[in-house]
Design a protein that fits this description.
- The protein is an alpha+beta fold and 258 residues long.
- It folds into two domains: 139 residues, Beta Polymerase, domain 2 (2-Layer Sandwich); 106 residues.
- It is built from 13 helices and seven strands.
- A five-stranded mixed sheet has the order 3-4-2-1-5. The chain has a two-stranded antiparallel sheet with strand order 6-7.
- Strand 3 and strand 4 form a beta hairpin.
- Helix 9 crosses helix 10.
- The longest helix has 19 residues.
- The chain starts with a helix and ends with a helix.
Length: 258
């Protein structure tokens, strides 16, 4: 599949007249708990030629490339300008891409150049809002019945553990679910229950269903209640765009020199 992914990215470059700067895995395979039939969720950052940006209506140009899902391959990417705008907002999905343990392309050491700007743009508060919204929504939509789609537990557990990671001031949230569990879950019984659920997720297919786990459900509900009653400080003002503009110009130039 690795070769197929590289060929797909090359085809996108040719068809769209862009250069892929960075490409990684972003879904359950990067989180460390793929099922037997999990998709490959490939996400990438790309850059157009200079003239594409030199128009009076560049903000109306489509800044996303998406491919229809086929053969377990889900591929989509963001234009460099969009990615840098989202970095200024401390966008958690982008931060997770940059920390993915599975990288398919990393031209010109792009990930490191993005990460050099994190001290300027990383906002714990913005990230906590994102993960709390995700946890609330997934809990409301998937975890209220007597029988639960197994994978949906992780779609609530992971953002809750991400919030607790941020609260412990450990910086940008890691992609790997096991890293979060090891760092955050101190109750041995709860950790065991999560590990058993994780083994089921890996062994089953994407649609495996089972009864509610009382201990995990209680942990989730307790944390959501706590977070609902915890006052959240206002987000700090966004810093200057100067560093982002410099990186944008640099990456656009080096990408098209070859």
């Amino acid at each position: 599949m690795f070769d197929t992914i590289l060929k797909t990215l090359h085809t996108i470059e040719e068809e769209q007249d862009v250069r892929v700067l960075y490409a990684c895995e972003s879904g359950s395979r990067a989180w460390g708990f793929p099922s037997q039939d999990s998709d490959y969720d490939v996400r990438f950052i790309y850059v157009h030629r200079q003239n594409w940006y030199l128009t009076i209506d560049v903000e109306h140009h489509r800044d996303v490339i998406e491919r229809p899902i086929s053969d377990q391959l889900d591929v989509s990417g963001w234009d460099l300008r969009k990615a840098l705008q989202l970095l200024r907002k401390s966008n958690p999905p982008l931060l997770e891409w940059l920390n993915s343990p599975i990288v398919y392309r990393n031209e010109y050491d792009s990930a490191a150049q993005f990460k050099q700007l994190l001290p300027l743009y990383y906002s714990p508060i913005a990230c906590m809002f994102h993960y709390l919204h995700m946890a609330r929504g997934n809990y409301r939509d998937y975890l209220r019945g007597d029988e639960i789609w197994v994978k949906k537990y992780f779609y609530v557990l992971r953002p809750i553990l991400a919030i607790k990671w941020i609260e412990s001031e450990q910086g940008v949230v890691p992609m790997e679910f096991a890293t979060l569990v090891d760092a955050i879950i101190t109750d041995a019984t709860l950790k065991h229950e999560i590990e058993v659920l994780l083994a089921r997720k890996k062994a089953g297919d994407e649609l495996d269903k089972g009864p509610r786990n009382a201990l995990i459900s209680q942990f989730i509900e307790t944390e959501l209640t706590r977070l609902e009653t915890t006052p959240t400080p206002p987000a700090p003002p966004r810093p200057s765009k100067d560093a982002l503009n410099r990186l944008f110009r640099h990456m656009m130039i080096v990408a098209w020199e070859r």
